[in-house]
Amino acid sequence: MNSKAVLSQTEVSQILAAARSEAQVNRWDVSIAVVDDGGHLLALERLDGCAPIGAYIATEKARTSAIGRRESKGYEEMVNGGRSAFLSAPLVTSLEGGVPIIVDDQVIGAIGVSGVKADQDAQIAKAGAQASK
To answer: How many angstroms separate the CA atoms of 10 and 65, rounded?
Structure first.
């Protein structure tokens, strides 16, 4: 039998706090979603000033990263490289800003961020994912 780490509410809170801090330092109004390894929502925070759709997009970025076991940016790069079929892939968003949370070389969840430029979303998500280590 295999075993792996799982995200507890303690880690989820640390991840959210680190991502929120990165966003606030830069004055970026975003939504932040944290999911488990199956893409199921564990936490969602929409900072003041972020458009409501940001909450939906952040969740989908996180879900894509968790079930795809990679940054959502990889799918964006595939689409931009001509693999437009990924635009219709179920349960996959091809937008940068979803980052897997990896412990002992295993994806145990992911964080997704939406509300600013794609690379800024990813910067915030990476700050959150680093808090789990």
So the answer is: 21
The per-residue pLDDT for 58 is 97
List Cα–Cα distances, 78 to 25, 91, 116, 122, 124, in angstroms.
32, 16, 22, 17, 22
Closest CA to 109 of 74, 66, 78, 64: 66
Query: What is the average pLDDT across 58-83?
Result: 91
Domains and CATH numbers, the chain: 9-130 (3.30.450.150)
pTM of the model: 0.93
- Of the candidates 133, 128, 132, the one whose C-alpha atom is nearest the C-alpha of residue 114 is 128
Based on the number of CB atoms within 10 Å of its own CB, is 38 exposed (0-12), middle (13-18) or buried (19 or more)?
exposed
